[in-house]
Amino acid sequence: MDNSPLQVLTVPTAPYPDQRPSTNGLRRKVYVFQSRRNYLHNFIQSVFSSIDLRDRQGSTMVVGGDGRFFNRTATQVIVQMAAANGVGRLIIGHHGIMSTPAVSCMIRKCKAIGGIVLTASHNPGGPDGDFGIKFNTANGGPANEAVTNKIFQISRTIEEFATCPGLQVDLTTMGKQTFDLENKFKPFTVEIVDSVESYANMLRNIFDFAALKELLSGKNHFKIRLDALHGAVGPYVRRILCVELGCPASSAINCVPKEDFGGQHPDPNPIYATDLVDSMRDGQYDFGAAFDADGDQNTILGKHGFFVTPSDSVAVIADNIFCIPYFQHAGVRGFARTMPTSAALDRVAKATKIELYETPTAWKFFGNLMDAGMLSLCGEESFGTGGDHIREKDGLWAVLAWLSILATRKKSVEDLVKDHWLKYGRNYFTRYDYENVDIDAACEMMEDLEITITDKTFVRQRFAVEDKIYQVEKADSFEYADPVDGTISRNQGLRIIFSDGSRIIYRLSGTSFDGATVQIYLDSYEKEHVFGDAQVMLAPLATIALKISQLHHRTGRTGPSVII
């Protein structure tokens, strides 16, 4: 057996112009990573090179992924390059799988300098699907814009990368593996860890597990249905909800991670989580939830499939936040939502006199507020909810938050939400996604729309649809001044705010591969008529939004691809 030190190589390469990471990291079709020479290696080297050499040498980093196709291949490449770039220790989830919330937890627990998350979130997997790489920094959250810009600039001029091709790690066996490298004084260590335990222990310190166990497995217990959509969170659901809290094994479905997510779209939106929705219809389950591929998103359903919008979900948690022991001890410093998310949370913040922050669409803005001790609970309309226990949205945390509230309030999901509407009024909310729109047509439409709504004459205009009249109170291109560091983020979406508090938001999404995605958000506030059909109640705003934007004419699209 050859015990000589492993060779470290410097390999020449050429840059690619398209490796700018978004807030979600670098996402591409799998074939891009497979077919373009050194495409993966270039980006990984750019990530390592963005870290100061003094910080990198001998450091600890965390690696985990959602288990999608190409996850294992990419993990081996990261291990080889981490060793060659001076990292001292890698902590990797068993089989290379670790949910995004658990990665954030592990980074913070081990005081790592950061972590690499291999996920394309709710995008499809498999050989014909998507793959993604995201860098999280030492606070456990997504890298901020300064870091992602640095990574991108390095990727544009990269000429070589360092790797140790002879190093092969066994992802299937838990424990430490050590490797001697040439010209390295200390061995390189890889720890394959139980992906669940550290994260589960964190949750035990946040929630009252005894009360949850009584709710879920005691006399007259709640019957629940949880769908992991064959993503990374499946083992967490089984271990925490079934083994520890006593739910029957049949409560958890699609809990075996699969590289193609069983051919499903790993998105908790009820449009895609059809197994869960179908099983909830007959009323045998009191509570249902689904998670996306990497476990940071969630959807909440009540008996007979009663759907809780993500905007309402964070508002209900905020109004009942002291049902969670963590907040009884730590207190509540602030609430926050992304700008497109409905203003339901604002009404709770106003009533409770707790500061409310409205941020652009990216979890990193929440993390900055949390690091400064200004924020405790936050959420976004795209099925993300979280607290300040980590620096990522957290699907399983949101489910346990809801179950804690249900255990305390002793009401059904539907009654809890309807009581909330009666107390605060209701923000009817939806999002229209127009996918794969011609990029030039979409950009031109948004440019002309901004000119229209920022004209002085637009404010105070009145729009009448049927018996509803909406008067414009404010219209702008949203920009955010970070109260922590003063950073200004401009062009974060176009807002039209009406005098009754209703809003229309237009945004271009940056996560589509085949064209632009135009998103229209409708947020209609009703103080009295809180039990109406959402699409009926939102129809007047939808008519106004399409009239102002002329979207159908400008893009050639007659309807949205998806209604959320």
TrEMBL record:
<keyword id="KW-0597">Phosphoprotein</keyword>
<dbReference type="InterPro" id="IPR005844">
    <property type="entry name" value="A-D-PHexomutase_a/b/a-I"/>
</dbReference>
<keyword id="KW-0963">Cytoplasm</keyword>
<keyword id="KW-0460">Magnesium</keyword>
<feature type="domain" description="Alpha-D-phosphohexomutase alpha/beta/alpha">
    <location>
        <begin position="328"/>
        <end position="424"/>
    </location>
</feature>
<dbReference type="InterPro" id="IPR005846">
    <property type="entry name" value="A-D-PHexomutase_a/b/a-III"/>
</dbReference>
<dbReference type="InterPro" id="IPR045244">
    <property type="entry name" value="PGM"/>
</dbReference>
<dbReference type="Pfam" id="PF02878">
    <property type="entry name" value="PGM_PMM_I"/>
</dbReference>
<dbReference type="InterPro" id="IPR036900">
    <property type="entry name" value="A-D-PHexomutase_C_sf"/>
</dbReference>
<comment type="similarity">
    <text>Belongs to the phosphohexose mutase family.</text>
</comment>
<dbReference type="GO" id="GO:0000287">
    <property type="term" value="F:magnesium ion binding"/>
</dbReference>
<keyword id="KW-0479">Metal-binding</keyword>
<dbReference type="InterPro" id="IPR005845">
    <property type="entry name" value="A-D-PHexomutase_a/b/a-II"/>
</dbReference>
<dbReference type="Pfam" id="PF24947">
    <property type="entry name" value="PGM1_C_vert_fung"/>
</dbReference>
<protein>
    <submittedName>
        <fullName>Phosphoglucomutase-1-like</fullName>
    </submittedName>
</protein>
<dbReference type="GO" id="GO:0005975">
    <property type="term" value="P:carbohydrate metabolic process"/>
</dbReference>
<feature type="domain" description="Alpha-D-phosphohexomutase alpha/beta/alpha">
    <location>
        <begin position="20"/>
        <end position="160"/>
    </location>
</feature>
<dbReference type="GO" id="GO:0005829">
    <property type="term" value="C:cytosol"/>
</dbReference>
<dbReference type="Pfam" id="PF02880">
    <property type="entry name" value="PGM_PMM_III"/>
</dbReference>
<dbReference type="InterPro" id="IPR016066">
    <property type="entry name" value="A-D-PHexomutase_CS"/>
</dbReference>
<feature type="domain" description="Alpha-D-phosphohexomutase alpha/beta/alpha">
    <location>
        <begin position="198"/>
        <end position="301"/>
    </location>
</feature>
<dbReference type="GO" id="GO:0004614">
    <property type="term" value="F:phosphoglucomutase activity"/>
</dbReference>
<dbReference type="InterPro" id="IPR005841">
    <property type="entry name" value="Alpha-D-phosphohexomutase_SF"/>
</dbReference>
<dbReference type="InterPro" id="IPR016055">
    <property type="entry name" value="A-D-PHexomutase_a/b/a-I/II/III"/>
</dbReference>
<dbReference type="Pfam" id="PF02879">
    <property type="entry name" value="PGM_PMM_II"/>
</dbReference>
